Amino acid sequence: MKARDRAAEIVRRDNRGKSGGRRASRWLGAALGLALLAGGIWVAGSVATRSSSVLPLPDPDLSHLDERTRSLIGQRRPALEAVIRSRGEKVGVISEASGDLGKLYLACKLTGAAEACLMNAQSLASGDPRWPSCLGYLYRTSNQPEKAIACYERVLRLQPGDLAALVWLGRLHLDRNEPEKAEPLFRMCLEIQPSSPSALYGLGRIAMSRRDFAAAVQCFEKALSISPQATIVHYSLAIAYREMGETGKTQAHLALRGDVEPYPYDPLLEELQRILPDPKLHADRGIRAFDAGRWREAAVEFRTAVEADPTDPVLRVDLGGALAKVGDQAGAMEQFQQALRLSPGNARALLDIGSLLERLGSRSEAIRYFRSAVAADLSFPEARLALADELQRQGKYEEALPHFRKAIELDPRSAEARLGEAMTLLRLRRYSQAKRSLEESLGMFPERPEFAHSLARLLATCPEKSLRDGLRALKLLERLPDPGADLEIAQTMAMALAEAGRYDQAVQWQRRCIDSARRAGRSGQTARMEERLALYERAKPCREFWSDESEAPPSGR
Amino acid sequence: MRLLVSRLLVAPALFSIPAAVGTISCRGGAPDAGARGSVRAGASPAPPFIEAAAAAGIDFVHFNGMSGQHYLCEMMGAGAALFDYDNDGDLDLFLVQGEMLGPGRTIQQALLSPKPPLPPAGRLYRNELMEDDRSRRSAGAESSPPPLRFTDVTASSGIRTAGYGMGAAAGDFDNDGWIDLYITNFGSNQLWRNNGDGTFTDLTARSGADDPRWSTSAAIFDFDRDGWLDLFVCNYVDFTFANHKRCTASLSRAQDYCSPLAYSPLPNRLLHNRGDGTFEDVSAASGIASESGGALGVVSGDFDGDGWPDLYVANDGRPNQLWINRHDGTFVNEAMLAGCALSGEGKAEAGMGVAAGDFDADGDEDLFVTNLTGESNRLYVNDGRGRFSDQTSAEGLSSSAQPYTGFGTGWIDFDNDGWLDLFIANGAVTAIEAEARAGDPFPLRQPRQLFRHTAGKSFEQISSASGAAFSPWEVGRGAAFGDLDNDGDMDIVVTNNNGPARLLINESGAGRHWIGLRLLGKAASRAGKPRRTSQAGRSAGDAERDMLGAWVEVMRPGRPALCRRARSDGSYLCSNDPRVLIGLGDSPRIGAVQVNWPDGRSEEWSGVSADRWTSLHEGTGQGR
Asked: How far apart are the C-alpha atoms of A458 and A545, rounded to whole Å?
């Protein structure tokens, strides 16, 4: 038996006893079609009908829809009314027009109206699998699984090899904990299309429910080899490996997991998405992709959202952010500027433009935008931080300091703002204030090495004697993981050793630093490092903090 | 069994206490709280719950302070706390309130006006059950139970809430035997110390328990097992009035509430109780602050079976977290590996409320998380070692596109058949267009749901058969669980955003047998902490308190043991009855009761009676 025939057989077996009703409905549909052709049953506008199996043409409230959507419906509904009025039209044409309107209502989530139109289309063209397919989608997405199952079964009777229907029906059975009904559907799908990742994924899920993890792994691995972009499969695969005790593979696949599903190719879904893309849906997907570092995917989703709603400045800012991440600076700037046009004074757009300019080297222009962002939203900590950081970089420490402090006030847990404040205080030679700030931050962020490091260097080198404490600096540095691995931290170690009077060790550390710098090609720094080495060799401590730009302190951002 | 259905009243003899059990404690001086329930023959055909808030004197209506701006916080609150603040043996009720939202906005600008009393504020209601019971007895009226009655004691309690309220958590932080109250806000939180005389003192600033961000649910648990209750505070997202974004409905483009993904998630806070009236912020040191997810729900429990309390956090739109206690003051998030971070298919869902309970009676705690419309609520089944599998559809709790958005939830054995059932308070988070078209100014209404666990097989939704208490569609948020009338079945307080609080009084559970346990211990004195004297001259640190985290196993001849944990956390924005109520089904026979105390020691009691509330005092059982 061919695969398609067997698919129909599965559905037939599952529906024994239902065939009488089906025959009656098919008869009614045909009778209705003839009656329509005989003329005058439907009255334009209200579509009064003598047959109870045909639903009146719905007239849903469209007041909540936007102009564009209302206008689309405004075109399609009269088209249907026109073909109904036209006595010469064939039933197929009326069915088509009714189905088209139904699809539009479906895209608008006007489910009641969509259901009526699609039911009518189905009644008029009972042999057309598109309408039960649309109804299956409608019921599947509106929590009516029983009706959805009946629709997909109908599709498969009409078109036994419909891959999308096989997969959706299989998934519906899986959701209802009916793996025994789902399995033959997925297997059939594989017979028709051996490389169907959605069928393999379904079979993997069935294997998981039976705790046959080896079989599940096989299915998931194969699905991923065919469709690596179906990143959601990594999660199920990871859990299957977990159950098999393969921790390494578990962790590896957890790290790769995403939320792209192995959907079957479904022309209906594509059509619905084309009719009326949902910006919110795409924006949410974009945010998830962005948060996971999948910039390209995020950009695609945000662009779809922008196309669906070009008037939303937030979407444009999000798209700009994703474009900047993939290196399309011009595209990003265009989106940020569009956002500003749509929402003059949009603080996020101003900040992003500033950040982009900063990256492109236009630092004074960047400051102008950061100032505008702060002015547009006085309680926007990121804007404050960006402004403060750039001011600090440009040596405007007195001006930067209040902005760092305001950023901390707005977001007390901002490690970046706290570090920026401390570094600015150091630049301003307000050492005791800087020490207090670093101590407080270290208490708040013990896991952030930059606070321990900065405090240690202050304690080791501070020009104010009362603040110096070489032993405490050493203790702070010793708590850092592998202090020798970072050139700056290693130099601070040498400074702390010198301050503690352990000059021999300071010399050893400093020599190692010089060697490392040479090996790393940082020969520009070695001169100053040599000077420090000379100090230690003469049993003298270092009294320089971060002395110039080539040896910059940790950045606030 | 209150209010509508007459019942067989408890004979005074039932108050007698088996010697092996210790005393039933009602420290407020009231008669013991045991045995108010009755045993009826046969199951009741009546609806399991009746709604009785107004009749009981709860006139609270939540005010969300909305003015048309669609601020994200206005549709998220608020919660409630069930706790016996006056130690008289019955559960009192604190309800969290909102206030006008938006810079410079006045209450006159509210789209939906607040109900009196004004200005809107959190309210404390005293349960008069024990007082009325005493009066009834002294009047010799033994034949009819007094109606459940609450009195608003906010003014005399001294509780003056400040800020836009979200949730509440109740626990005895200073071990003085009087339960204190922590209130979470959109903004600074508040810690109210129970003075033991019906009044409370604001200790927020002095204790260091504040968090200025947007806090939601909180859990009170002793994470380091030092005998002092610590505090975990869920923080949501960095929404402020200044960074408020304009989001639109997908079809109408009308302004609607934003997804939480429009904002950055905030790290949670773990506060270690120093035992001297202050808390130390150990969020960073413990590892808790290392990951943020936009937390809404939290429940504590020993999920990996190592005897130390862990935390499960439900995050909105981002992976949930399972913080496993490493016994050294630190936690590690193992949710992803444990299989309870995402749906079984690997999708992050909109975690709201959370419940932990041994629904399959295999001796470990399983997790239930409520999610968004179009997703599915999730049931994660524990294998006893802290590894979970998503069994939502296998247990009949799944549908491919769930019609409602769940918030408050709890495992409750509402019919006392020994199997844990599920309650869910639902309410949408974006406009339901049909309701909006019908002119509803706050079109987020959805019905609540009750799922019965049918003899350990699967769950069956019985909401539609559950009577008028389940009929109204409201903007459900919190659900607090407890035996408000001490009759041996679980009642529910439901909080609605911009709507009245509801009291769902259980009418069905007492048709079967049950055992009610209050687990009391002198945690801190045993831990060797110094005895202190409070400012009011009261000794703190050595009084008995509810041993949150204690694990109870009730042995039954010929049947599997029933395991429950004493906890006040879980659900959404709410604090629950810290006592343990266990349905026994048709047989009252109990073998022994074993309690595993939070410090890891175990004790066993025999001769504990069914169909009554009993207090088990740490140190009075047989050590194991």
From this structure: 7
Could you report the per-residue pLDDT of B206-217, keeping only the tens digit for each? 999 999 999 999
Contact yes or no for A259 and B248 at CB 8 A: no
Find how far residue A504's CA is from the centre of its chain: 54
Q: Which residues of A touch B401 (CB under 8 A)?
A: 140-143
In a domain, A62, yes or no: no
Rounded mean pLDDT for each run of 10 residues along chain A, 557 residues in total: 50 44 39 38 35 66 75 83 74 86 86 89 92 93 88 95 94 90 96 93 95 96 90 95 94 88 83 73 81 86 84 89 91 92 86 92 91 87 92 92 90 87 92 93 84 94 92 92 84 94 94 90 85 93 66 45
B250, B281, B393 member nearest A177 (Cβ): B393
Q: How far is A473 from chain B (nearest CA, A)?
A: 20
In this model, does residue B28 exceed pLDDT 60?
no
Which residues fall within 8 angstroms of residue B365, CB to CB, at 6 or more apart?
A: B301, B302, B303, B356, B357, B358, B382, B565
| Cross-chain Cβ contact A175/B254 below 8 Å | no
Residue A300: inside a domain, yes or no?
yes
Domain count, chain A: 1
- What residues of chain B, 395 to 434, have a C-beta less than 8 Å from chain A? 396, 398-403, 433
Chain B residues 593-612 with a CB less than 8 Å from chain A:
none
Residues spanned by the domain of A308: 279-479
In this structure, is residue A398 part of a structural domain? yes
Chain B residues touching residue A287 (CB < 8 angstroms) = 259, 261-262
Q: A287 vs chain B: nearest CA distance in angstroms?
A: 7
Sign of the dihedral through C-alpha A25, A30, A35, A39:
positive
Non-local CB neighbours of A287 within 8 Å, separated by 6+ positions: A298, A318, B259, B261, B262
pLDDT digits (tens, 9 = 90+) for B264-297: 899 999 999 999 999 999 998 999 998 999 999 9
Residues of A in contact with B289 (CB under 8 A): 413
Closest chain B residue to A277 measured between Cα atoms?
Answer: B250
**Closest C-alpha among A275, A322, A332, A324 to residue A301:** A322
**CATH number of the domain encompassing residue A379:** 1.25.40.10
- Could you say which residues from 430 to 449 on chain B have a Cβ atom under 8 Å away from some Cβ of chain A? 433, 436-437
Tell me the one-letter amino acid at B502: R
ipTM summary value:
0.83
Closest CA to A371 of A344, A398, A345: A345
Structural domain includes residue A291: yes
